[in-house]
UniProtKB/TrEMBL annotation:
Protein name: EAL domain-containing protein
Start and end residues of each EAL domain: 24-278
Included range, full protein: 747 to 1038 of 1054
Length: 292
């Protein structure tokens, strides 16, 4: 039958595509119920300041465990959530959970860290985003400086006028703003200069290359110089080896995040690490400790 309708129809019925469409539809249906069925969870990955060796921030990373399909990676379900608009309720849950968690850690007396949350393009297009964040910070009584938003380079560049206005408003409240996956898009330097941001996150692909050759070393070096000249903080993503760390220390990268130090982990695991950091800080107090 499909042949009668011509080439296009035949292509649409190709078994591989059909299977993929079926899978996506099935996954979207499951995702629709993920929130109410309590299948979502946040994991947290520490960010370490290279000068002090302390955890200064954590990135909240969404995890979805379906009872039958098991763990579905965010790179698979986030795009689906974006396409279906489900990212709005899910994103709201992420923001709320992250704020509450950070406040809870502070109330436990753990050393304060900044909580970074990823915000996608669709979420930025939601006019209620800034009001929601303001409301959440007020409700949880979390100081805005302990709250960070990560947006990717292409969001910041493509919708720049609108985005600048939103970022400006958030930054005036005291929220910390980072550009995620930096270096993967072609942002012009003049655009970058006008963005109201605090930090650049160098994408993992360049960090992967620094131990292998001069090209990625040169790129990372240049990004760090650029960030410093613009008065921005700079963090390297996906640091996995000692060589990468040594190189980044050498060229005075501010902070790092990666499996070399810690993988993303559940809240309870991070609490133990933060508690340990707190104990060692107390022990070394007054002994000319470099910690600030
Ligand atoms: P991202 O924001 O760039 O997050 C960093 C990703 O790199 C995370 O993957 C993290 O687990 C991984 N990673 C960190 N260090 C290393 C390392 O040393 N080696 C390797 N191989 N990987 C490392 P994850 O958790 O799978 O998340 C993938 C992406 O999904 C994120 O990339 C982000 O774009 C998106 N995402 C995750 N959670 C959320 C969320 O709550 N909301 C939105 N909108 N997007 C999210
Ligand atoms: Mg991120
Ligand atoms: Mg990233
Ligand atoms: Mg990424």
């Amino acid at each position: 039958k499909s042949k009668e309708k011509g080439k296009n129809h035949f292509v649409l019925c190709s078994p591989v595509i059909k299977e993929e469409v079926n899978f996506k539809t099935k996954l979207t249906n499951h995702l629709y119920h993920a929130l109410e069925r309590d299948e979502l969870e946040l994991h947290y990955q520490p960010q370490i300041c290279l000068q002090t060796g302390k955890i200064v921030g954590v990135e909240a990373l969404l995890r979805w465990t379906h009872p039958e399909l098991n763990m579905i990676p965010p790179n698979v379900f986030i795009p689906l959530a974006e396409q279906t608009g489900l990212i709005n309720p899910i994103g709201e849950w992420v923001l709320k959970t992250a704020c509450c968690q950070n406040k809870a850690w502070q109330e436990m007396g753990l050393p304060p860290v900044r909580m970074a949350v990823n915000i996608s393009a669709t979420q930025f297009r939601n006019p209620k985003l800034t009001t929601l964040i303001k409301k959440l910070l007020k409700e949880t009584d979390l100081k805005p400086r302990y709250f960070e938003l990560e947006l990717t380079e292409n969001i910041a560049i493509n919708q720049s006028d609108y985005i600048i206005e939103i970022l400006d408003r958030l930054r005036k409240q005291g929220v910390f703003i980072s550009i995620d996956d930096f270096g993967t898009e072609y942002s012009s330097l003049s655009r970058l200069k006008t963005l109201p941001i605090d930090q650049i996150k160098i994408d993992k692909q360049f960090i992967d290359g620094v131990a292998k050759g001069k090209t990625d070393q040169a790129i990372v070096n240049t990004i760090i110089l650029l960030a410093k000249n613009l008065g921005l903080n700079v963090i390297a993503e996906g640091v996995e080896t000692h060589e990468q760390l040594a190189f980044l220390k050498d060229i005075q990268c501010d902070s790092v995040q990666g499996f070399y130090y810690h993988r993303p982990m559940p809240a309870q695991e991070l609490e133990i690490i933060l508690q340990y950091q707190n104990d060692t800080m107390i022990k070394s107090q007054g002994v000319n400790s470099p910690c600030v």
